[in-house]
Design goal:
With 215 residues, this protein is α/β, with parallel strands linked by helices. It has one domain: NAD(P)-binding Rossmann-like Domain (Rossmann fold), CATH 3.40.50. Helices cover 38% and strands 16% of the residues. The chain contains 7 helices and 9 strands; from the N terminus they run αββαββαββαββαβαα. The strands form 4 sheets. Strands 1-3-7 form a 3-stranded parallel beta sheet, sandwiched between helices. Strands 2-9 form a two-stranded parallel sheet. Strands 4-6 form a two-stranded parallel ribbon. It is globular and about 55 Å long.
Length: 215
């Protein structure tokens, strides 16, 4: 990919990393791109994303092609897939179909208070486009995120504004610290500001699914 970028005169490559690189950090609050992360990871996805970030740094220096790491938060929305790490897609699909959400594919028990930085896919795409086309970027790594933590309780509350009879029983409490990704860098360098709150996501996503789209 880098070789082709050199041959075609491509200015910048944006590489998809993941919120999972922050896994194992136990401090609550905003996670900045410069916070030290753990070298190891318990799952293959964040493990190879960490490798990709280091490889990207090496290739950028060796080739002269600008390579930017995008640490993308939990993303949900049209054309998404079942996610093993968070419950939002399963909850919204269950609500749209009028069935109990299938949480069996999630790797850990689901608690009502579990919160994650979730970004609607339309926002994710817009943020990536801004980073790819910016005239100048001041950093090599950017969080692509909403800049806030959204809990399962908040998701369910938003869903019930659209589907009043939606019900689901989750374990009480939460199993992890309330964290979110700091989006100061992407805002300062591109002007990116999230536009979708959880309620707007629920309205838009449920309408999409109910219009005949399976994902």
């Amino acid at each position: 990919m880098v070789q082709v970028a050199e041959e075609w005169g491509v200015k910048r490559i944006a590489m998809a990393s993941t919120i999972g690189v922050y896994g194992g950090l136990t401090t609550a609050g905003a996670l900045r791109e410069d916070v030290p992360v753990l070298l190891s990871a318990p799952h293959p996805i964040p493990r190879y994303k960490k490798i990709d970030e280091l490889l990207g740094e090496q290739l950028a220096e060796a080739s002269g092609v600008e390579i930017v790491n995008l640490r993308i938060s939990g993303t949900w929305g049209p054309l998404g897939h079942e996610d093993p790490f968070f419950a939002a897609p399963a909850l919204i699909h269950g609500a749209a179909a009028g069935t109990a959400p299938d949480l069996s594919g999630i790797l850990v028990p689901v608690h009502a208070g579990d919160a994650l930085d979730l970004t609607y896919v339309k926002e994710t795409g817009r943020a990536i486009a801004l980073l790819q086309t910016a005239q100048r970027l001041n950093h090599r790594t950017y969080n692509v995120a909403s800049g806030r933590a959204t809990s399962n309780t908040e998701i369910i509350a938003a869903i019930t504004q659209v589907v009043p009879d939606f019900r689901v029983d989750l374990l009480e409490g939460d199993a992890r610290p309330r964290q979110w990704l700091d989006i100061t860098r992407i805002h300062d360098d591109t002007g990116y500001e999230p536009e979708y709150d959880t309620e707007r996501v629920a309205v838009d996503y449920i309408a999409w699914l109910r219009s005949g789209n399976q994902r």
